[in-house]
Amino acid sequence: MSYEYLKQQLIQRKQEIEKEFEQNNHFGLERGFASDMSSGELSQYDNHPADSGTELYEREKDIALNAHLKEELSDINYSLKQMEDGTYGTCEVTGKQIPIERLKALPSARTIKEASPNQQVSNDRPVEEDVLRSMEEEYYTGSQETEYNEQNVYNEVASFNENSMTYEDSSLIDNKDGSGYVEEYEQFVSTGIEGYTGDENIKFQRNIQYDQYMNEQENIDEEENNS
Fold first, then answer.
1. How many CB atoms lie within 10 A of CB 121?
2. For residue 154, is it within any domain?
3. I need a surface site. Which of 42, 70, 152, 209 has the fewest CB within 10 A?
4. Considering its fold, how many domains does the chain have in total?
5. Cα separation, 66 vs 29, whole angstroms
6. Exposed (0-12), middle (13-18) or buried (19+): which is 25, by Cβ within 10 Å?
7. CATH number for the domain including 92?
8. When comparing pLDDT for 59 and 134, which is higher?
């Protein structure tokens, strides 16, 4: 069986990867892994932690992309060598012929589909989910309102702080659980269902009053639907 078409496809992809490495200097990793070198900064001393976090994320992404393309290039070179040796297209596990349809989809395939590694999908979940689940159970109230809300988050974070955090305006969270807001927002004007009927019927909604206003509207809607 002639694999000339697949060989040309592999060579073309190899040239594309090598050209990409040349143009971006292996995703800029040749400049070094230090954040100040990669970002062009002389020092990270006066940078905001969020900026440093962004730079770290970009470095990690470049490392992953670089490793992925290096692995792909290695697979391509291996397949080209197999073509020279006359072993290309033979499954390395079973010895069977790899279907041409699979080779067209993945020219660097070394095995048939049934013998390829990583057939099973992992069911592992992040450990953070166990922590969040335990918090949900701890703060479960049995109501349909918000269970684990901003006040619970603040309490969890504040529990790790050595300071008392009792200074004025240390938190905008209302003392009522499930108030529904973290930061103050601008007031808004509301009217009745009839719209503007005079200045005396205009109301200004502020902060916690927003939740009360929305609850009132829901009750009105339910009464209208039931009537």
1. 6
2. yes
3. 42
4. 3
5. 8
6. exposed
7. 1.20.120.910
8. 59
HEC letters along the chain: CCCHHHHHHHHHHHHHHHHHHHHHCCCCHHHCCCHHHHHCCCCCCCCCHHHHHHHHHHHHHHHHHHHHHHHHHHHHHHHHHHHHHCCCCECCCCCCECCHHHHHHCCCCCCCHHHCCCCCCCCCCCHHHHHHHHHHHHCCCCCCCCCCCHHHHHHHHHCCCCCCCCCCCCCCCCCCCCCCCCCCCCCEEECECCECCCHHHCEEECCCHHHHHHHHHHHHHHHHHHC
Angle subtended at Cα 57 by Cα 48 and Cα 129, rounded to the nearest 5 degrees:
105
Query: Lowest-pLDDT range, 16-20, 67-71, 156-160, 206-210?
Result: 206-210
- Whether 137 maps to a domain, the answer reads yes
pTM, entire model: 0.49
**How far is residue 18's CA from residue 10's CA, in Å, rounded to a whole number?**
12
CB distance 100 to 136 below 8 Å: no
How far, in Å, CA of 200 to CA of 127, rounded?
Answer: 56
Residues 191 and 170 in one domain: no
Expressed as residue numbers, the domain containing 23 is 4-40+52-115
Integer-rounded Cα Rg, in Å, for the chain is 31
Is the predicted pLDDT of residue 59 greater than 50, yes or no? yes
Residue 105's φ and ψ, nearest 5 degrees, are: -75, -35
Overall average pLDDT of the 209-214 stretch: 70
